[in-house]
Hints:
alpha/beta, 123 residues, Macrophage Migration Inhibitory Factor
Amino acid sequence: MPHITLEYTQNLAPELDAGEVLMSLNRALAGSGQFQEPDIKSRALVLDRFLVGTAPEGRAFAHVKLALLSGRSAAVKRELSEALLTALSRACPPRAGLDVQLSVEVVDLDRDAYAKESRGAGS
Amino acid sequence: MPHITLEYTQNLAPELDAGEVLMSLNRALAGSGQFQEPDIKSRALVLDRFLVGTAPEGRAFAHVKLALLSGRSAAVKRELSEALLTALSRACPPRAGLDVQLSVEVVDLDRDAYAKESRGAGS
Amino acid sequence: MPHITLEYTQNLAPELDAGEVLMSLNRALAGSGQFQEPDIKSRALVLDRFLVGTAPEGRAFAHVKLALLSGRSAAVKRELSEALLTALSRACPPRAGLDVQLSVEVVDLDRDAYAKESRGAGS
């Protein structure tokens, strides 16, 4: 916890550097003061099969899901999604000729049912 | 919003045409009258590592997740899932020799924490 | 229902055998007595673009999401997540030099909006 999943349509690559976007997102979360830095676990999925509406071309999207343990206030979740959207927007280069939608959702993880285990590098 | 994620096991390919299924799903949503056509953002993931139960072979599945902003009634969500299942079923060709499970889930997105930005093709 | 999604970072491969982990997870669920064996639908996604915190290297994670129809008690969900974490931990070989985080989340599927269809191998 927290988990970030970045999805982006293939027509945003190669201009979009997934590693750079993930770093921007993780820094935004680390800077929020809500999490321990090593706990932030992020992944990016490039979408090579996608469809926006019913138009075959000219559209793209990048979407971020933030999953965090339940219990944070609506205000904190709103601040986190805004911070992630800002980071995503800055890290996504402009693309002429494409309608691009950027979005961020926040999901609560059921705290009581969350189980975890950590193994240090020396273990 | 809304977001669709189609997952299907690799043994349904190549008969299953992901682009065709996505178009069927998006048309079903667009035809529901609940959404603006350009807002429907869909992706397909082919699953090359999967396991149904504990049987090594002979089973397949295709699963659709519809994520939409919270606030719609249970009846509307039920109608949407039924419409998506119908579209999925029609778009999935029959496969002799395989037990195939088709399913649709509907997830509410936390409306207060959802953030988005649109960039037009000319911007 | 239920659905399992296993995600693991690429630096855990090739020691981590996704097929073996899925079998362990599915057996754990089948052994819980909560599900019919053929209903357990699992997939594994290897994450080749990931970032843990803001450190470029030396960290890894494997994460399991269990999605099941709403209505089960918190105690049952806790037992299931513990059983899956145990199975995941046993199936993940030790990796010297890596900080590895293992985690399991449980998500309720909206029962009223869940739609499904089964096609037998002979149909």
